[in-house]
UniProtKB/TrEMBL annotation:
One of its GO terms (cellular component) is cytoplasm. It catalyses: 4-methyl-5-(2-phosphooxyethyl)-thiazole + 4-amino-2-methyl-5-(diphosphooxymethyl)pyrimidine + H(+) = thiamine phosphate + diphosphate; 2-[(2R,5Z)-2-carboxy-4-methylthiazol-5(2H)-ylidene]ethyl phosphate + 4-amino-2-methyl-5-(diphosphooxymethyl)pyrimidine + 2 H(+) = thiamine phosphate + CO2 + diphosphate; 2-(2-carboxy-4-methylthiazol-5-yl)ethyl phosphate + 4-amino-2-methyl-5-(diphosphooxymethyl)pyrimidine + 2 H(+) = thiamine phosphate + CO2 + diphosphate. The keyword Metal-binding applies. The gene is thiE. Residues 17-135 form the ThiD2 domain. This is Thiamine-phosphate synthase. It comes from Lyngbya aestuarii BL J. Keywords: Magnesium, Metal-binding, Thiamine biosynthesis, Transferase. Gene3D superfamilies: Aldolase class I. Residues 151-327 form the Thiamine phosphate synthase/TenI domain.
Length: 362
């Protein structure tokens, strides 16, 4: 009995401090995530899920555990890591705090089994809910960015590819596709990883052309598939519901098929003849007009679009464009990006006030 009392005297304070520290850690991390869901994403649903999780944590965070706290005597307050002192962007903040919450919940699950018979089960279920929340938030962010993106840059081989892409991102670009038909897979993966990191630093989406495997390996936000690539259903099975899938289309039949198969967006073109699609004849402005009147998902007019023919594409209903040479070969990619974005915004405003006809309403 004396040994048991001695054991309890040593272990109980440590157990209480572990539970208190990790309840604090989980609640703080969830609050940081909740603030972005509320103010950054304007998602009441995701913010409410964070709030409910925090309230459940508060239920377990009793005064008995709080009174065990010994901040001056806690050696962990002096431990730090250089990565904790800087964040590259919102993605970095969210990822760090999801990791913090999930690790804390695992600690609470294991040590909680000693403290209360229901605690282990409760925190195990809560941990799975946080995993689901993380997937939902990531998907929500991606699809919101896609919905807000009106300019899409598709890369072409260039010794200055990274500097060109970053210059465009600095101009406000939010959607980049890495297209590379020349290099071997090792180089492609290295480039994809670097471009992905670059895009996420500027809160932009990174899409991998054709290759689902490289999209997964590089942590891309999605993949763009050509007509001869794997079926959308298989890509979805491999990528999961949280990543974006685009499909190239050249006619109304391919458009309808892509929508029916679950594409998140489509490319409409090539509008004009272009060396990047030398084997495909131009689809022309008629297909752009058809997409404006019939497409129910985001779509991007693509193929030979530049400053000279931009207005022609807009006049038949274009509202989003994808470009290659117009930015990749520009002397000032930032200014060209800003020009396209300003013109696309102008078109949206004119259509909103019925100053410019909107073929999609015809």
């Amino acid at each position: 009995m004396a040994d048991q009392q001695s054991w309890d005297k040593r272990v109980q304070p440590a157990l209480y401090r572990i539970l208190d520290a990790n309840l604090d850690r989980a609640r703080e991390g969830l609050r940081i995530i909740e603030e972005w869901c509320r103010f950054g994403l304007d998602s009441a649903e995701l913010a409410e899920e964070c709030k409910q999780l925090r309230q459940e944590l508060a239920h377990w965070h009793t005064m008995k555990l709080r009174l065990s706290r010994d901040t001056p005597g806690d050696l962990g307050t002096e431990l730090t890591h250089p990565q904790e002192e800087k964040r590259e962007g919102i993605d970095s903040v969210l990822q760090a705090n999801f990791c913090r919450v999930e690790e804390a919940l695992r600690v609470l699950e294991e040590y909680g089994k000693i403290y209360h018979p229901d605690m282990g089960v409760s925190f195990k279920q809560m941990r799975y809910r946080v995993y689901t929340l993380e997937s939902r938030l990531l998907a929500y962010q991606r699809y919101q960015l896609l919905d807000d993106a009106y300019l899409y840059l598709v890369t072409s081989p260039s010794d200055k590819m990274f500097s060109i892409v970053e210059a465009a991102l600095q101009g406000g670009l939010k959607l980049v596709q890495y297209r590379d038909k020349q290099n071997d897979d090792e180089i492609r993966l290295q480039n994809a990883e670097k471009l992905c990191e670059l895009c996420h630093r500027y809160n932009a989406l990174f899409i991998m052309n054709d290759r689902v495997d490289l999209a997964i390996a590089s942590n891309a936000d999605g993949v763009h598939l050509g007509q001869k690539d794997i079926p959308i259903s298989l890509a979805r099975q491999l990528l999961g519901p949280q990543r974006i899938i685009g499909r190239s289309t050249t006619n109304p039949q391919e458009m309808e098929k892509a929508i029916a198969q679950g594409a998140d967006y489509i490319g409409v073109g090539p509008v004009y003849a272009t060396p990047t699609k030398a084997d495909k004849p131009a689809a022309g402005l008629d297909y752009v007009r058809h997409a404006a009147q019939n497409c129910t998902i985001p779509w991007f007019a693509i193929g030979g679009i530049d400053m000279n023919n931009f207005d022609d594409v807009m006049s038949v209903g274009g509202e989003r464009i994808a470009v290659v040479r117009a930015i990749m070969e520009a002397e000032q990619p930032t200014l060209v990006t800003q020009y396209f974005l300003s013109q696309l915004t102008r078109v949206q405003t004119l259509r909103a006030y019925n100053i410019l006809p909107n073929p999609s309403s015809n």
